[in-house]
Design goal:
Layout: E1 4-14, E2 33-46, E3 49-50, E4 55-62, E5 71-78, H1 83-93, H2 104-109, E6 112-115, E7 119-121, E8 124-128, E9 133-138, E10 142-147, E11 149-150, E12 157-158, E13 160-163, E14 172-182, E15 189-203, E16 206-207
Parallel strand pairs: 5-6, 5-7
Antiparallel strand pairs: 1-2, 1-15, 2-3, 2-4, 4-5, 8-9, 9-10, 10-14, 11-12, 13-14, 14-15, 15-16
Length: 210
């Protein structure tokens, strides 16, 4: 197994309401789970292959709860990645070179039945974790925007966090509102649903906690 480690930031949008039942070991509130994710790797390596500055994204579609499987997915890899970096990123995203179920990559990969061919393309990401603002844009595939949750009466920004001391993706996530519309083989559409803004520090063994 080749050791890897990344530090970065992410925006995730799924079909659940702002709390996202899945974060609390409960069933998805819509009965199914559709999700879009974008990750900026600020620092990273896979073995001797550096991954600094690269971006990845994905679309997921499960017909029921994630753990029930039968999911469909498509992965997007930064067009700036060379051949070795592309291979490294795909191995990380598909849960290879990772302890069983140690990261969200490994967990989700184990529940996907149909993995579409990866797309190597330009990935536009805007990520302000503390401000709960962001955007994921992949031409012909993804259009996602994230913003703070707002008070329904005053319109003021409302801040909330989810803390998972033993989570497999993050330790602390800022929660916002996000909307997505995708094209291509995996089509999903969400409006003003769960938006997750988080700083990531992961390696082959799971979340790195400091």
């Amino acid at each position: 197994m080749t050791h890897w480690e990344i530090k970065g930031r992410e925006l995730v949008n799924c079909t659940c309401e702002y709390g996202c039942n899945c974060q609390f070991n409960a069933l998805p509130d819509k009965g199914h789970c559709h999700a879009v994710a974008g990750i900026q790797i600020d620092e990273g390596r896979h073995g001797s292959t550096k991954l600094d500055g690269l971006r990845i994204a994905a679309i997921f579609k499960w017909p029921g709860p994630i753990h029930a499987g039968n999911g469909e997915a498509i992965a997007f890899v930064d067009q700036n990645a060379d051949e070795k970096q592309r291979e490294a990123l795909l191995r990380i995203m598909t849960g290879q070179d990772t302890d069983p179920f140690a990261t969200m990559f490994a967990v989700y990969a184990s529940t996907v039945t149909k993995m579409n061919n990866p797309v190597f393309t330009k990935i536009d990401l805007e990520l302000d974790i503390d401000g709960r603002k962001g955007r994921i844009s992949v031409k012909d595939y993804i259009d996602t925007t994230g913003e703070p949750i707002r008070n329904k009466v005053t319109g003021a920004e409302s801040r909330a966090q989810i803390v998972l001391p033993e989570g497999f993706e993050y330790t602390v996530a800022e929660i916002g509102s996000a909307s997505s519309k995708t094209k291509g083989p995996v089509k999903v559409e969400m409006k003003n649903t769960y938006g997750q803004f988080a700083r990531l520090h992961l390696n082959s063994h799971g979340v790195v906690r400091t």
